[in-house]
Design a protein that fits this description.
This protein is an alpha/beta fold and 221 residues long. It has helices at residues 16-25, 32-42, 57-70, 89-103, 119-129, 138-147, 165-170, 174-183, 199-208, and strands at residues 47-51, 82-85, 110-113, 133-136, 159-162, 189-194, 213-217. It has 9 helices and 7 strands, in the order ααβαβαβαβαβααβαβ. Helix 3 (57-70) crosses helix 4 (89-103) and helix 8 (174-183) packs parallel to helix 9 (199-208). The protein binds adenosine-5'-diphosphate and magnesium ion. It is found in: Nucleus, Nucleolus. Residues 38-215 form the Helicase ATP-binding domain.
């Protein structure tokens, strides 16, 4: 599938490590949704992003997550700086792979925490290696927050991302996600990404986001 692209990534102020990864992937131009989302999410704004599947939403949040976390002066391995919530294990794994690629040559620890894996194994790897960026599904995130509450610290959380929000709602995660939001610091940036918006998602936006910039890219390609 040919992807529709807009301006060059060079029009945005990005770290050297992010530029290197983009070059390695041969990504030179942003997709339209990236071109609008990146400058907003990289500044201090919450974003609601609606655009169709395959339009490049993943990098619209992975790049800001990496840039924002990398920009922090001091943190420990057990400081959770960013949480990316996916509706399914498969999506979380895909997002994890992209996030790991962009975290190369940084000192950020990225963890993939999803159901289907023995919870004790996840607890062990979190206690052993920490977790600055968690790519996760709602149930597993909740369990890890409980089981590692004496170790993982969320008070420095900078970025929260809901990926495929329509699917999160469809799969019945609305109340779990709301409970999770209730346990996270309010001073943070939050992004919500979805192919479609409905009333339940708007409810989630009210609970989890603050004055979000609403981005709706309906390109015709
Ligand atoms: P979405 O989350 O909107 O469904 P993805 O983020 O999964 O879309 O991106 C779809 C595909 O486009 C992926 O294979 C991704 O690697 C590719 N892609 C994303 N951004 C770019 C870009 N700027 N240049 C070229 N390919 C890109
Ligand atoms: Mg996606």
């Amino acid at each position: 599938m040919k992807i529709n692209t807009a301006e060059s990534f060079d029009t945005i102020d990005l770290s050297e490590t992010t530029r290197k990864t983009l070059n390695a992937l041969n990504f030179t131009r942003m997709t339209p949704v990236q071109a609008v989302t990146l400058p907003n999410f990289l500044s201090n704004k919450d974003v609601v992003v609606q655009s169709k599947t395959g339009s490049g939403k993943t990098l619209s949040f992975v790049i800001p997550v990496i840039e924002i976390c990398q920009g922090l002066k001091s943190f420990m391995l057990n400081d959770v700086l960013a949480v990316i919530i996916s509706p399914t294990r498969e999506l979380a794994k895909q997002t994890y792979d992209v996030t790991v690629k962009f975290s190369e040559n940084t000192n950020l620890v990225v963890q993939c925490l999803i159901g289907g894996v023995d919870i004790q194994a996840d607890v062990k790897k979190v206690r052993e290696f920490g977790g600055n960026i968690l790519v996760t599904t709602p149930g597993r995130l909740w369990d890890i927050m409980e089981k590692c509450s004496d170790f993982l610290l969320f008070k420095k959380l900078e970025v929260l991302v809901f990926d495929e929000a329509d699917k999160l709602i469809q799969m019945g995660f609305q109340s779990k996600v709301t409970e999770i939001i209730g346990k996270l610091p309010k001073q943070r940036r939050t992004g919500l990404f979805s192919a479609t918006l409905n009333d339940s998602i708007k409810e989630l936006i009210k609970v989890g986001l603050r004055n979000p910039v609403k981005i709706n890219v309906t390109d015709s390609h």
